[in-house]
């Protein structure tokens, strides 16, 4: 390559270069959509090099990239110079904004002059506050104006484009100001440099807006790494695009916006109701205007449950004068097989009746303890109010020495899941439980139950337990804990006897049979009822043999056997056998 051509590309070819994920900021004029950039060179002396500030269409061009220095100066990435003016001296720069790069001490002294310190006004204009001039683009260049700095012609926003998988860099305000995020959209911006709706991935942008607003709003800078930790694949499957962040800079960082909610509660039960959060000492209903199936599914998962089979989106209404919080509320998976929720909510009070999301999650297909009529009483030792251990209640809080909770299921069950939580206030829970159980009060079988790691998420232990009626639960850790519990499964029935054999004599018979031996096949059989020709003959305790007397010789009889368990449930199937007494 000829040397002159190489120098030309080195010096001027950069003007054609567009950053892929610019990792710096640009200043975008709200009215025209154009950006401030380094333009044609004005002068090049021993002291300094100067360039006109011009307005360009492509905000991602390297000439339009800037960063704030600690000295409150805005530095142009391409030239290394900073935005400057001679507004107070009316020199040859015609009261226009330009870029100045100081080469020696004299040039750097002018470059670092406080007259060039720039911040943004509340109205959105770029303001040289030491000399009280604001910036206003004309047809090609950028003028300085003394008056009218609140006009729409002076409005600018700061912007940046960050490639997925990279970290934001130089996305910040002046050292005197704080970021107010206007939008943070995900889309294909590098190809065109335009930020119109057709370039935006609307599904992913719902999460990027929440993440950037909640994590960077009110900060001096934003240094997020935009990867799968913040933008998981269920919302952002296409990792080839960029995040466009648009913001303004304000003097105060104070804000009432809610960006964290350590206590999230559904109003009806742990898995059903309106979403409420605790904002300081105030409980607020969440009004998420973009609520959808995926958001409900992820919130259910965050709380330790699943979405319902119907997977419908429901809503309800609340009246005026209720405390609410409106905005973004999005839960998502993290890389550590956990979940997190992004929150950016504005607190307010309802002026009138409004509709808000009503969430329905699922504990399991067959919850047992939610039937208050069937299981009216819990018992135990330590504290009282054992019935509060239901999911629909506030939680049973233990006290004293070795407290425990007793549950009588009234009949035997096949238990498939044990779900536990702390109290409704999310202040106390246990990390591990010991559960003993049996079909009698012997509690001879044991099962370890995984407890909770926090106050908001239910913990599910998958089990395969049969013949469970009486349950005793104790914490394996602290004795100061609170517990809410749900069991999943279905009632077991006694199965019929098998292989009936009869040895008959003239007036009596010896009857034997086999009992079901598998716990999965039958509840525990405690009694058998013997019928003779359809009439109850006797009821005996658990056995495999009985003698029957009082028969007539050489006569046909039918023996029927019905099994019963400790809950007086009878087998649906009746085992029977015909025989004839001897002649």
UniProtKB/TrEMBL annotation:
Pfam families membership: F5_F8_type_C, fn3, SUEL_Lectin
Family annotation (InterPro entries): FA58C, FN3_dom, FN3_sf, Galactose-bd-like_sf, Ig-like_fold, Lectin_gal-bd_dom, Lectin_gal-bd_sf, SRCR
Chain ranges passing through the membrane: none
Cystine bridges: 300-361, 331-341
SUPFAM superfamilies listed in its UniProt record: Fibronectin type III (SSF49265), Galactose-binding domain-like (SSF49785), SRCR-like (SSF56487)
Tagged with keyword RNA-binding: no
SMART domains attached to this UniProt entry: FN3
Protein's UniProt keywords contain Disulfide bond: yes
CC terms in the record's Gene Ontology section: membrane
Keywords: Disulfide bond
Source organism, top-level taxon: Eukaryota
Gene Ontology MF terms in the entry: carbohydrate binding
Stated name of the protein: ---NA
Natural source organism: Paramuricea clavata (Red gorgonian)
